[in-house]
Amino acid sequence: MTQKKRHSSTKMVPAPSQGIIPERDLSERPVLEARHLGIDFGGLHAVEDFNLIIGKTEIAGLIGPNGAGKTTVFNLLTKVYQPTMGSILLNGHDMAGMNTAQANRLGIARTFQNIRLFDHMTVEDNVRIGLHNQTRYGMTSGIFRLPSYWRGEREMHERAMELLELFDMQGLAKHSAGSLPYGAQRRLEIVRALATNPSILLLDEPAAGMNPHETDELMNNILKIRDQFHIAIMLIEHDMNLVMGICEGICVLNYGKIIAKGTAKEIQNNPAVIEAYLGKQKEA
Going by DSSP bridges, is the β-strand pair 44-54/32-41 parallel, antiparallel, or unpaired? Predict the structure, then answer.
């Protein structure tokens, strides 16, 4: 199957931390660094010695067979789980001891394999929830409806509508989130994550359940996000056309360990990756 290439031919270059990042990001601090990251569950090494560096505006992919530990890595990076070993740096800040809310305020946001919207709330209110850490009025202003409260409410409405407009969803602002078609719900979850003003966005199987047209639209939206927000994006995905067509650096996980890192072309031709996905081929 022919794979669609949406990004320009990106040159990946060595970074100081034994990784590769886009050449355009070389002069800036990496947005994310995972160093010897790992977690044990009852003696089982779910993730072990995970090392990764992501450039400031890189679109990165994390792939691997089912059960490889990909979502566990996302849970570690977003502090849903606390690592047993290793460290995570976000924009140079050590995330040790942080919880999920603190990690989000520092600049990391995510979506989930299973859509997690507030179905009975409006589309706009779902986005406004993402804006909670940017509220500019205090409790007193809210209780007594002071001018600062109304000013803050107006600013949040305007910002929510701006974000929805980027994905042509402004006309759905007053609809309940649960009434949206599947693809629109996926887009709304991404918009809500963007509302938190992240420096890196983690997408967990964003194309799951999408038809080819919706997947094609998703690829365009990922590029739009990177270009308009100037942030990094990392995605877990099983749709190889999407991964190979849009990701600049790709990391392959198997049984909780990294077995390969490189560009799309390097990953496609890596024997260890082929074996992990297809099984070891018997000699004739």
Answer: antiparallel
